[in-house]
Design brief:
The protein is mainly β. The protein has one domain. Helices cover about 10% and strands about 35% of the residues. Strands 1, 2, 3, 4, 5 and 6 form a six-stranded antiparallel beta sheet that branches. β4 and β5 (about 70) form a beta hairpin.
């Protein structure tokens, strides 16, 4: 089992928030980590890990939601997308973050 607070995240220089949340501890084994990114182009991402998201804290899978100016912006990577990207492995996460980072303003 991977401890979510010890998972190394890519693009550390753009991380604006990295928090482990145990506020819903009354739920069975609930722990979540949210990492927020802000890129120079105005876009960013919210990446979460935990058992209440499209992720799996035990295997290191992630849920990513693209953002723009601190608002959810689902279609930032793919104009036909209208939801978060779930169950991403390390490589898929890195690719999506790179696409958001490289997106034109």
């Amino acid at each position: 089992m991977v401890e979510i607070e010890k998972v190394e995240m890519p693009y550390k220089e753009y991380v604006i928030s990295d928090k482990v949340d145990e506020s819903l501890a009354y739920l069975s084994n609930y722990t979540a980590r949210r990492v927020r990114y802000k890129f120079p182009n105005g876009y960013g991402a919210s990446v979460v890990m935990g058992n209440l998201f499209y992720s799996d804290e035990g295997t290191g899978l992630y849920e990513l939601c693209p953002m723009k100016d601190n608002a959810l912006w689902y279609d930032a990577v793919d104009p036909s997308n209208n939801d978060v990207y779930g169950y991403l492995n390390d490589e898929e996460l890195y690719i999506l973050l790179t696409k958001i980072l490289m997106k034109e303003k």
